[in-house]
Structures are given as C-alpha cells and as structure tokens.
Amino acid sequence: MSSTSNLNQLKARLASARAVAVLTGAGISADSGVPTFRGADGLWRTFRAEDLATPEAFARNPRVVWEWYDWRRGLIATKSPNPAHHALVEMERRFDQFWLITQNVDGLHAAAGSRQLIELHGNIWKVRCTQCGQVSVNREVPMTLLPYCSGCGGLLRPHIVWFGESLAPHNIARSEEALHACQVLLIIGTSGVVYPAAGFSSVARAAGAFVAEMNLDSTPNSSVVDVSIQGRAKDVVPELLT
Ligand code: BJW
Ligand code: ZN
Which residue CA neighbors atom 73 of ligand 1 most closely? Predict the structure, then answer.
C-alpha cells in the first residue's frame, strides 16, 4: 500500500478516535539534531552501551559514565523541539484521552509543552542519589564531576534507566493503561529493539488498537503494525493534524 493511502487510513482512524497513545524514540529528536542510539551516526557506534549505560559500568568507573552524560547534556542543551514534538502537543489538546510515552531522556517533549507524558527511561536533566534515592533536577552544563547529594553526601547518578534495571512501576502501570485504553497507537522513531517498549505494539494491537508506525526505515515493529509510514518525523507527524 502506498504511503499516501496509509496516511489517509491513519487520519481516518484518528478522526473517530477518543483515546490516543503515542510511543516515541530517538528518531523524533533526530530532527532536532540529537544523535540516535543505533543509527549511522548513532551514539553507540562510538561508545559501547555495555561500557557506559549499565549499573556495573557506573559502579566500576562513575567518572567515565558521568563524562559521557555531561557531554550529552552539553549537546542536548543546544537543541530545541521540532515540528513533530509540537504536533504532539496539539494532538494532546484534540483528544479526550491522550498519553505520550517516550523512551527519550532529552526532555524535548516537556520543553515543547506535552503534559500527559511518561518518561519511560528517565530524564537526563534529573539526578538521583545512590544512597538516599532522592531525585532532583540538575541543569548545570557543564556539571561538577563528580556530583554528590546535598542531603546525605551520597554519590549522585543520572536518573536514567540503564540496561538490566527495572523501569519505574508507576510508569509501567500508566503505559499499560494507555495501551489497553487507546483506539490508536502511534509509534514514532524507535528501532523497536529495547524491551519492554519494543513489545508495546503487540500489547496495544492485542487489546484492539489500530497501530501505526512512523519511521525512516522498517523495524521489527513493521510486521506487527496496521500501517507503516516512512519519512522523517518532522514531516510526517504534523501531517496528521491537517
Ligand atoms: C527516524 C528519524 C527521523 C532516525 N524520523 N525516524 C533479551 C531479550 C529481551 C530483553 C532483554 C534481553 N536481554 C536483556 C533484555 C532487557 C533489556 C533489552 O531490551 N535489551 C535489548 C537490547 C535486547 N531491557 C532492559 O534492560 C530494560 N529493563 C528491563 O527490561 O528490566 C527487566 C529485565 C532486566 C534484565 C534482563 C531482563 C529483563 C531497561 C532498558 C533501558 C534502556 N535504556 C536506554 C539507555 C539509556 C542510556 C541513556 O540514554 O543515557 O534507553 S537503551 C537506549 O535505547 C535508550 C533508548 O531510549 C532505547 C531505545 O532506542 P530508540 O529510541 O529506539 O533509538 P534507536 O537509535 O535505537 O532508533 C532510532 C530509530 O529512529 C531508528 O529506527 C531510525 O530509523 C529512526 N529514525 N531518524 C523518524 N528523522
Ligand atoms: Zn542522598
């Protein structure tokens, strides 16, 4: 089926939907200039994930891990939301029920003004104490390395979900609610390889939702969804509002 008829089919579904859920990944922020994880110039072609994005790596060498995050924070600080982020803010206004589930940690959805937001993998602008668990916002760029908790003196870590760590139970619960309640699920700019988010398309589809993927390429999700629309997020997502 052509991309135009896929787009029209999706727009017709949205026109009659009351509850809509969206899952985003690094591809939506790629159009703002934030590097993806696994693309051609993805972050992990130069850094090995298992060297940096794990609790073991942090325990072994917190400074190296913090240097990587400090570098990324400096980069993200110069970026702003693009038309795809803004279109999702408008979409939130249009539907009775709306959930935006993001795997991104860059904070660009919140910066655009999205409110019904589930930051599944955490936020790069938040830190968490490894001793007392206190979470706080930290926007220093560059930041003091290593950072310590003002309350208890414990070492602070990024408030981000690393490989092998559990996602916050309330975020899982809200996502489950969204996947079961939505009539349409949009999956935008994710490679669909990292669980549990990679399984969300199947969950929503089994619960009866119409599922659409928007991505530059095909992904493991492409064979599960009702329609795949190829293109850049900044071009295709705003099209849904027209
Ligand atoms: C565009 C575009 C444009 C580009 N427009 N599109 C074996 C089987 C199943 C599961 C596991 C397994 N072994 C281990 C696991 C569990 C593991 C997992 O899933 N691993 C897989 C890799 C196999 N998951 C976990 O550990 C999770 N925890 C968990 O499951 O707990 C229970 C458990 C523990 C242990 C064992 C088993 C269960 C936690 C996952 C946390 C993920 N965190 C990260 C890193 C955080 C570090 C940081 O950011 O600082 O989050 S991983 C990284 O990938 C990041 C992202 O959020 C996530 C997803 O990436 P995303 O967004 O899809 O980006 P890309 O780059 O991969 O894709 C970009 C896409 O955009 C591409 O498709 C492009 O085509 C497209 N694109 N430009 C539109 N302009
Ligand atoms: Zn503390």
Answer: 191
Q: What is the CA(182)–ligand 2 centre distance, in A?
A: 39
Q: Which CATH class is domain 35-78+123-160?
A: alpha beta
Question: For 171-181, how does the pLDDT look when each residue is reduced to its tens digit (9 = 90+)?
Answer: 999 999 999 99
User: Nearest CA to 49 among 235, 233, 194, 153?
Assistant: 194
Q: Are 156 and 128 within 8 A, CB to CB?
A: yes
pLDDT digits (tens, 9 = 90+) for 107-155: 999 999 999 999 999 999 999 999 999 999 999 999 999 999 999 999 9
* pLDDT score, position 119: 98
Domain boundaries in the chain? Answer: 3-34+81-121+167-241, 35-78+123-160
- Answering whether pTM is above 0.85, one says yes
User: Considering only CA atoms, which residue is closest to atom 43 of ligand 1?
Assistant: 162
CA-atom Rg of the chain in angstroms: 18
Using the mean position of ligand 1's atoms as its centre, give its distance from the Cα of residue 194 in Å: 3
Residue nearest ligand 1's atom 64 by CA: 26
Distance of CA 85 to the CA centre of its chain: 11
Query: Which listed residue (121, 159, 170, 180) is catalytic?
Result: 121
